[in-house]
Amino acid sequence: MTHLDTAALKELAQNVKAWPFAEARSLLKALNGKLPEKGYVLFETGYGPSGLPHIGTFGEVARTTMVRHAFETLTGMPTKLFAFSDDMDGLRKVPTNLPNQDMLNQHLGLPLTKVPDPFGTHESFAHHNNARLISFLDDFGFEYDFKSATEEYKAGTLDETLLKILQNHDKILDIILPTLGEERRATYSPFLPVCPTTGHVLQVPVVETKPDDGTIVYKNDDGNLVETSVTGGNVKLQWKADWAGRWVALDVDYEMSGKDLIDSVRLSSRICRALGGTPPTNLTYELFLDENGEKISKSKGNGLGMEEWLRYATPESLSLFMYQKPKTAKRLFFDVIPKTVDEYLSHLSKFDGQEDKDQLNSPVWHIHAGTPPNPEGAGLSFNILLNLASVCHSEDKAVLWHFISRYNAAATPENSPILDSLVGYAINYYKDFVKPKKQYRAPTDAERGALEALQAKLLELDSETPAKDIQTEVFEIGKAHGFENLRDWFKACYEVLLGQEQGPRMGSFFALYGVKESAELITQALNGDYLSD
Q1: How far apart are CA 129 and CA 239, in angstroms?
Q2: Topology classification of domain 6-172+238-285
Q3: Secondary structure of residue 235 in the 3-state scheme
Q4: pLDDT digits (tens, 9 = 90+) for 404-414
Q5: Is 386 helix (H, G, I), strand (E, B) or coil?
Q6: Class of the 438-533 domain?
Q7: What angle, rounded to 10 degrees, do the helices at 262-274 and 169-176 form?
Q8: Dist CA 511 CA 470 (whole Å)
Q9: Residues linked to residue 285 through DSSP beta bridges, in sequence order
Q10: What is the dihedral sign for C-alpha 95, 98, 100, 104?
Q11: What are 302-311's pLDDT values in tens digits?
C-alpha cells in the first residue's frame, strides 16, 4: 500500500467492506465528522483482573486496534487507546484456577490491588494480573495507555463525574432499580464505600446523599452511620455506573464488548446520558466457546490461554482468529490452530498480487496495520510441516530442515524466519497433540492394492517431480482402484500411512518427504511396522 498517498487511501477506505472500516465509518458518523474537543478520538478496552488475563482479553484489544487503525486511515484524526483495568473492584469470589486458595479466601472484599498476590511475584493480585496483561500486549506491539482504576480514583480523574453521579443519584436509581430484585432494590446505591478501617469495598445501604457537601452517609456492618466523601478514592462505583462514569470522565468515543454485556451497555448508556455524556460507539462481539461449546471464563480457566496459543502458532495467526467474523461465536480450542495458521499464510501469499481495494479488505492488512511482511518462498503449509514431524517421529528442528532444504535448496532457517518458527511450532503441536493420538490401522484388501500401485508409481517418479504432478498421480490411482468417493482414498492414506484421520495434500507431502522415502513409508505401513506403535 505504500504507493498510495494519504488522500488516496482515505478515498479508497470510504467503501471498503472489511468490518473494521465499517466500524470506523460508524464512529465517524457518531462524531458528526468532527474531531472531539479533547483533541483526539479515544478508544477504550476494559479488563477485570479478578482472574488471569485470557485470550478473549487479547481479542478485544486486537480488534479495537484494528478499528482504530482503520479509523486513522479513513480520517487522519489523532487517536488514543486506553486499556483500563477495573482493579479497585472487591474480590467477590476466588477463581478456581489459582494457587493459595485458602489465603485468597481470607481477603474477600478487599480491592484487587490490596489482595496479596497468590503467585508471590507482585505487590498484589491485581498488580500480578495487570503485569501479565501489559507484558502480553507489549509483546504484540500494541500502542496503548494502561489505566488502573485504583490510580484513577485516587488521582481524582473521576472526581468531577462522581460529584455528577451524586447530584443525579435519584435519576440513576430510576434507571437501575427496575432491573433488580426486591431485596437488592432496598439497599442499592451506585456508590460502594471503601471502609477506612478494613479497606474493604462495602456493599452497604446508603441512607443519605449530600450533593452540596460531596458526601454520602452509609450504614456500616456494625449498624453505625458513617459519612464519607465520594471523591479521592473513598468510594468505588457499582459496575454499570462505573462503566458509565468512566465513559463520561474520560470522554470515551469507542468501546466494544461481548454479547453477555448487552444489557450492561444499554443501562450504562442510559446512565451516561443522565450525566450529560454521550455513550461511545459500540460493537457487540460474540463470545468464544471451549471444546464443549461453553463460554470461556477467566474464573473457570477453560479454553485456550494466550501463552498456550503462542506455544503452537504465530502471533499473527492468533490475530487472524480474532479478525474473522467477530459477530459469530467460534470454538477456541487447540484444534483450530493448524487451520488458522494456514489461512494466515494463504492471505499473506495473495496480498501483493491484489488490487488496492482488495488489499484493504484483506485480513493481513488489518493484522499488520497496513504493512504486511513479504511472504517467504518455500510455500509449505503448517499442516504439511505437522505431518513431516509426525512421519519423521522427530522433535528436532534440524531433522525437519533436512527435508525442507532438499525440497527447496534456497530456504534456510536464516533467510526464512517465518518458516523456521513454523517448524518449531509444528514440533510442539505434534508432540503435545498428534503424537499421543496417533492410531495406525491395517489397510483393507482394496486399499492395499491401491497403496501398492501408489508405491510403484512413486518409485518411477523423478525426485524433482512437482507436487501437483504427484497429486495427479495419487488421484488417478484412487480412481483406477474403484474409490467412487476419493475422500475415502485419501482418508485411507492418512489412517494407514500417517496414523491420523486428517492430513495434508498427499502430493505436497510426498514431494517434501521425497518420493523414494514416501515409497518406503508405504512399504513399512503395508508390512504392519507401525501397528504396534
Answers
A1: 20
A2: Rossmann fold (3.40.50)
A3: strand
A4: 999 998 999 99
A5: helix
A6: mainly alpha
A7: 160
A8: 7
A9: 258
A10: negative
A11: 667 778 899 9
